[in-house]
Design brief:
Elements lengths: L1 H6 L2 H34 L1 E4 L2 E2 L13 E4 L2 H12 L2 H11 L6 H53 L13 H11 L7 E2 H10 L12 H10 L6 E2 L1 H21 L7 H17 L8 H40 L3 H13 L1 H11 L4 H32 L7 H19 L3 E3 L2 H22 L4
Helix pairs in contact: 2-12, 2-13, 2-14, 2-15, 2-16, 3-14, 3-15, 4-5, 5-8, 5-10, 5-14, 6-9, 9-10, 13-14, 15-16
Length: 446
């Protein structure tokens, strides 16, 4: 739309933006109604105490007894989606208050807001990813720590703590000499790594290059010489035992058994692994994926640039030949075409009927709508401001606001959605079409 709008006359550019707004509104509404409702229908599981049970779908078409459950981050994504409609509200203020002279200023302010929100949202995604990665590393370290303590407790020649709950130094010293394979009075990084890598950590594959293994070494090696002497070993084991005891007590248990700490930490790790898919990604794999993704984005951009103008012209010519308003072609047909790949992927993900994948599915829907609102609106506002076009899309903006705010509020304050919400979402799509038609072609808003 941007390339096509820049290359044509002002009158033609106005029509291009009209088609673009139809595509924007149609895509946003389709994602939040048809696709959202379809994912509820496909991903539904049995609801027990307002929570869906993975892979259990025996209640068939029970409107109240089956549905989907999402996690807290999905609700946060829904709230961010609501915030993304603020530029739409600002650009419509001159129309609401009938201030014709303020239209261009409102477009400029909305453009600045849209760009600021877009940059902020991208930064939020990057920072959020880094925070998740650090949380995963922290939980992974705790898992290694719990497995290590459990292992040495079972293999040590006596209890690690005496009857007074203090470090049993004779037992720890025997353990230290057992780890000191070359008997040089130090446990080296290689010796500690060999022990950690050799322990079964319940589905966590570690190798000597893993950064978390190095962090375990850092917990003991306070001098920084990559060698652990007996005193450092005492202090390191003592700190780990205290952290294990503190963690178990905070979890509501009155015991300090290593098995309790191990189970609690394993559950915490499992939950974190469910919400973060990149735990096992290596640096080389991530680099290859990044290069591949970059090339795919470049290819897609080239294709979009090459076919942008013919595609928009086709919509206009088809509209003229069939007497169907171009807006409805861009509002109904084009969103189905441009979002078909994403829709297929998300519906497939929801069909696995697991809460983890269902949450990711709805998270992607809200994220896609947020990017639609911010990125596309930035492009259209830039075109309108640079080419001195008229912002006359009250009906489209109103429909976007209604659907985004209604669905946003509904999904922000609830994590469970019974099957009855599915037909409501479909009905909202039909009502949106009727509303646009009435406002544009009956009441002549545009």
């Amino acid at each position: 739309m941007f390339l096509s709008g820049l290359s044509k006359s002002t009158e033609t550019a106005q029509k291009k933006v009209q088609i673009g707004m139809g595509l924007l509104a149609g895509s946003t509404i389709m994602l939040l109604t048809l696709l959202w409702g379809s994912c509820v229908a496909v991903g539904k599981c049995n609801l027990v105490n307002s929570t869906s049970f993975d892979s259990q779908d025996s209640k068939w078409c029970s409107l109240m007894g089956s549905g989907v459950t999402t996690d807290a981050p999905t609700g946060h994504a829904s709230k961010i989606m609501i915030i993304s409609v603020i530029p739409f509200i600002v650009v419509q203020l001159p129309k609401v208050f009938h201030i014709s002279s303020g239209s261009r200023i409102a477009v400029l302010i909305s453009l600045i807001l849209a760009v600021a929100f877009l940059i902020s949202y991208c930064l939020y995604q990057v920072v959020g990813h880094c925070i998740k990665k650090r949380r995963v590393e922290y939980v992974k370290r705790k898992h290694i720590m719990s497995g290590f303590l459990r292992h040495i407790h079972k293999t040590a020649m006596g209890r690690l703590l005496d009857e007074n709950g203090k470090l049993n130094e004779p037992v720890i010293e025997k353990l230290f000499h057992r780890l000191d394979v070359n008997h040089d009075g130090h446990v080296s990084s290689q010796e500690l790594t060999a022990l950690i890598v050799g322990i079964d950590f319940s589905n966590i594959d570690l190798d000597k290059e893993d950064a978390v293994v190095d962090k375990a070494m850092d917990d003991f090696d306070t001098s920084g010489d990559r060698l652990i002497d007996l005193k450092e070993f005492f202090n390191g084991i003592s700190r780990w035992l205290e952290e294990a005891k503190r963690s178990v007590v905070q979890g509501g248990s009155s015991t300090n058994k290593y098995d309790d700490f191990h189970v609690k930490t394993w559950e915490e790790y499992y939950d974190m692994a469910d919400s973060h898919d990149e735990i096992a990604d290596g640096v080389e794999t991530a680099t290859r994926v990044s290069i591949k993704d970059g090339l795919m984005l470049l290819l897609g951009t080239v294709i979009a640039a090459a076919f942008a103008d013919p595609l928009v012209d086709f919509v206009t010519n088809f509209s003229n030949a069939t007497n169907i308003p171009s807006f409805f072609i861009s509002f109904i047909a084009m969103p189905l075409a441009t979002n078909s790949s994403e829709a297929f992927s998300l519906i497939t993900s929801a069909s696995w009927k697991k809460q983890r994948y269902t949450s990711l599915t709805f998270f992607e829907i809200f994220g896609g709508v947020t990017m639609n609102n911010l990125l596309c609106l930035t492009v259209f506002l830039a075109l309108v401001y640079v080419r001195h076009l008229t912002w006359d899309f009250s009906a489209e903006v109103l429909v976007i606001l209604i659907v985004c705010i209604v669905m946003g509020l509904f999904t922000s304050f609830s994590t469970t959605f019974p099957l009855w919400t599915c037909p409501i979402a479909f009905l909202l799509y039909a009502l949106s079409l009727v509303l646009v038609y009435v406002l544009d072609y009956v009441l002549k808003w545009s």
